[in-house]
Amino acid sequence: MAEETIEQTSEQTAAAAKKQGAPRGLSNWLSKVDEAGEMGFRQLLTHLPFVLFLVVLAVLHIANNHLADHYVRSTAKTEKELKNLRWEYMTTTADLMKQSRQSEVAKLVEPTGIKPLRIPPNVIERK
């Protein structure tokens, strides 16, 4: 008789869970929590180290992503600066090469009265 009553109540609980759309395992777990009261709290304390471990992993993952983004931005900024310095170097080198030509030097010193030689220099030998 008692077994029939238990089977009927479990079938009624399963039917009620189907009507409500709740999974069968969830309804069993909720009924255990309702019966014991403290079962949920005990399970929470039992799984607390694992939950804390997961939280620490999540924080480390977020921090790692932020650090990686910082390095990527820093690298891009340095590459851009290097590119600008390279262009500046090339421009300065080209200007210096242009200013060191004989014709440019002659133009710069012409106001002082110095003129370029038209004949090659004489070699003086000493005995």
Describe the structure in your own words.
With 127 residues, this protein is an all-alpha fold. It has a domain of 45 residues. Helix content is 80%, strand content 0%. The longest helix has 61 residues.
Oligomer state equals single chain
H-E string: HHHH
Share of residues in strands = under 5%
Radius of gyration: 44 Å
Shape: rod-shaped
Helical content, roughly?
over 70%
Beta strand count? 0
Distance between the termini: 142 Å
Q: What's the story with the biggest beta sheet?
A: none
What's the mean pLDDT score?
Answer: 81
Secondary-structure class: mainly alpha
Question: Can you tell me the residue ranges where pLDDT is under 50 for at least 5 consecutive residues?
Answer: none
Number of helices: 4
What are the salient characteristics of this protein?
rod-shaped; about 0% strand; 4 helices
Summarize the structure.
The chain contains 4 helices and no strands. The protein is mostly helical.
Strand-helix topology:
Elements lengths: L1 H19 L3 H13 L2 H61 L2 H8 L18
